[in-house]
Structure formats: C-alpha cells, structure tokens
Amino acid sequence: MTTIQQNLTSVRSQIATDAQRCGRDPREITLLAVSKTKPVSDIEDAIAAGQLAFGENYVQEGVEKIQYFTRTAADTPLEWHFIGPLQSNKSRLVAEHFDWIHTLDRVKIAQRLNEQRPAEKAPLNVLIQINISDEESKSGILPGELDALAAEIASLPRLCLRGLMAIPAPEEDFAKQKAVFDRMEQAFLALKQRYPQVDTLSMGMTHDMDAAIASGSTLVRIGTAIFGARDYGPAQ
Ligand SMILES: *Cc1c(COP(=O)(O)O)cnc(C)c1O
C-alpha cells in the first residue's frame, strides 16, 4: 500500500467513526478527494484504492487531468467536481468537462453554464456556495440571497440543482465549527423541502471534517489528509 492508499483508508475510517458517533449511516457521506496541485500519479494511486470522485480548483489543471484519465482510464467511472472560484470566461471549460460545480454564486455564470453544457452530457450538477461566516471572502452568496438564486438555477434545464456548499472561515474549536455548519444544515433542509432533487451538502475539509459530519454534511472535500501538504511552488 502506498502512503496515499493508507491515508484514504484512515480518512474513510474517520468518516465512519464520525458518522456512527452521531447516529448517521457512513454511506450517506461521499468522500471527495481534492487533488489540486497533485500529479496524475497521485490520482492513479487513489483510483487503485477505489476512490472515484475527485475535486479540482483550477480550470486548466482540472481539464488536463480529466483529459488524461479519459485517455488512460476510459472504463473507470470517475466523477470530477470543480470546487474553485469560477470566472465567467472559463465557464465553457467547466460546462464541457466537469460533472459537478460546487461554487456557483452568480446568475450570470449559471446562465452561461446552462447554455454551454453539451447536449450529449447529463445536466451539470450544481451546488450553490454560501458565504456562511467568512467576511473576508468574496466567494459565495449571503444566506438571504439563496431563494432567488435557487429559483433561477432550478429553471435552467441543463443544470441540476443538488444542494449547497460552504468554506467557513478557519476555526480550530469544534463547537464553533459546528455552530457555523449547523446554520448551513438549516439552509440545506429548507432548500430540500422545496426542491426534491436536492440531496448534497458539501462541507468539511481536513481540519473541520468531524464537525461538518456532525452537522449533516453529505460530502466532505479532503485534500491534505489524503495527498499530503500542497506545494504551490515559488511565490509569483
Ligand atoms: C483545497 C480545498 C479543499 C481541501 O482542503 P484540505 O484542507 O487540504 O483538506 C476543500 N475544499 C476546497 C474548496 C478547497 O479549495
């Protein structure tokens, strides 16, 4: 077993422990392996250990990896999630290559993705990013803006509204992490009542996965605990 495969095993068992602690079925929680900045050989290691869902933050890098695996692993049912901020001039690449986007926060980009999603592909799965606690961040809508954006997205036939995503401001204390995630869960449950296809609450990273699962996360986005620390190269 490689280090990545050992890491995957321990992340999966931590998910199971977290789920059982709060009476949830671990199978309700999808593990998204966040492979940004990591080479395709690391992704191959993870695939060999049964991991199929991968998250990428940078459009170009993500598309190159998707194309690589379309060539080399066409029979493996991989799922690619775009989880980075999206500028409208890059929306076409996301619409053409990815299966999911977690960071939708503008009507204009929703409309572009809807127009650009190729007819032969299933509708693009969409999560709305909520800015739940991070006043510094420009990404995500405020909770009060959710109803309007959700209605807009739900009206677009080439998009499928699946739920919500958040990246809370970094916080080390479990109770404080959970208080923020609980607000996301409330918004998610309300959305789910209105849109039956809504089933995904994307929250929890390496440092706050336990609290996210305690608050009902159905998808955790884990990079460091699987692939190790990221090296972004020399400062630009
Ligand atoms: C990088 C990233 C992750 C993974 O973070 P880790 O702390 O390495 O687990 C998850 N979600 C998003 C949106 C990210 O950008």
From TrEMBL:
Pfam entry (one): Ala_racemase_N
Cofactor(s) this protein cannot do without: pyridoxal 5'-phosphate
Domain Alanine racemase N-terminal: residue ranges: 30-230
Keyword Cytoplasm: no
GO function terms (MF aspect): pyridoxal phosphate binding
UniProt KW Cell membrane keyword: no
Role noted for this protein: Pyridoxal 5'-phosphate (PLP)-binding protein, which is involved in PLP homeostasis.
Subunit: Monomer.
Family assignment from sequence similarity: Belongs to the pyridoxal phosphate-binding protein YggS/PROSC family.
Protein name, entry field: Pyridoxal phosphate homeostasis protein
